[in-house]
C-alpha cells in the first residue's frame, strides 16, 4: 500500500497516535508524517505510506496555521496546557498590526521550552521536565504571510504561513501571550479541506519538483543507479511513461538517481 494520505487530526491526539491508528487500519507498517502537530492542535496531517515513506525528505513544506492568542498571560508551555507563569501588558490593535508586519520575512525565533529541539543531545522538553534551565537556541525561519484576522480583547486571531521549523507558540510568547487554539490549514500543495480516506499517488507529494520523462532505456539506467544524459537544474521527478520511478539529481554529464522508487 503506497501513497499519500491526508487527515484532519482531532484535538487530543498526538501525531504518533494517528500514525499508529493508520498502521492498524491500513495494515501497513511503513507509515510516517511530514510534520508534527501538537496534541492540542488540529488540522492537516500529511502521511506517507509504504514506498512513499522514502519521499519524506522531499516533503519539507511551507505550512499555514490559523491560531488564537490570549494576550497578557504567559504559560510554561506557551499554550493553554501549561501552568501560568506571568502576566504582561496587553497590546492594542495597532500594536498587533505592527507586530504582524514585523514578523514577515526572515526572522529569528527561540523555540518553546517544551519542544523537541535538541540541545547537547537532549530535547528541550527533557530539560524542562527535569526543572533544568538551558539557553534556548536561536533559529532562523521564514514567514511568508502573517495577518491579524480578528481582535476581541484579550484574544487575537492570526493566520501565518511559514517555513519548516516555525513555532507558532513562540510567536504567541513574543506577542505577550499564549496559544489557546491552533489549526493547520495547509502544507505545501495540500489543503485541510482535501483530507479524506482516499490514498493519493506518491508523486502528488513532490509535484513542486520539475518533471522529466525518460525512455525505457534511460529508465533502466536510472533504476540501476547509472547516469542518464539529460540536463537538470535541480531535483526532478522522473517518469517512464505513466510510471513514477523516483527523484533525480543533477550530476556531471547529466542526471543521476537520488531516490529510486521501484513499483
Rg, Cα atoms, Å: 21 Å
**Count of structural domains:** 3
The N- and C-terminal alpha carbons lie at a distance of 11 Å
Tell me the series of helices and strands, N- to C-terminal. EHEEEEEHEEEHEEHEEEHEEE
Assembly state (oligomeric): single chain
Catalogue the unreliable spans: none
- State the CATH class of the largest domain: Alpha Beta
Q: Give me the CATH superfamily of the largest domain.
A: Pseudouridine synthase
User: Care to count the β-strands?
Assistant: 17
The helicity comes to 10-25%
Structural class: alpha+beta
CATH architecture of the largest domain: 2-Layer Sandwich
Q: How big a fraction of the residues is strand?
A: 35-45%
- The count of helical stretches stands at 5
Q: Main β-sheet: number of strands, strand sense, barrel status?
A: 9 strands, mixed
The residue-averaged pLDDT reads 92
Shape field: elongated
By CATH, the topology of the largest domain is Pseudouridine synthase
Write the layout of secondary structure elements.
Blueprint: E1 3-9, H1 15-26, E2 31-33, E3 42-49, E4 63-71, E5 73-75, E6 84-87, H2 93-102, E7 105-109, E8 118-119, E9 122-123, H3 124-129, E10 139-152, E11 155-162, H4 168-174, E12 177-187, E13 190-191, E14 210-213, H5 216-223, E15 236-240, E16 243-251, E17 254-260
Parallel strand pairs: 3-12, 14-15
Antiparallel strand pairs: 1-3, 2-3, 4-11, 4-12, 5-6, 7-10, 8-9, 10-11, 12-13, 15-16, 16-17
Commentary on this structure:
It is elongated, with a radius of gyration of 21 Å. The strands form four sheets. Strands 1, 2, 3, 4, 7, 10, 11, 12 and 13 form a nine-stranded mixed beta sheet that branches. The protein has a four-stranded mixed beta sheet with strand order 14-15-16-17. Strands 5-6 form a two-stranded antiparallel sheet. The protein has five helices and 17 strands. The protein has three domains: 3-61 and 189-201, 2-Layer Sandwich (Alpha-Beta Plaits); 63-181, Pseudouridine synthase, CATH 3.30.2350.10; 209-260, PUA domain (Archaeosine Trna-guanine Transglycosylase, Chain: A, domain 4). The relative contact order is 0.18. With 263 residues, it is of the alpha+beta class. The mean pLDDT is 92. Strand 5 and strand 6 form a beta hairpin.
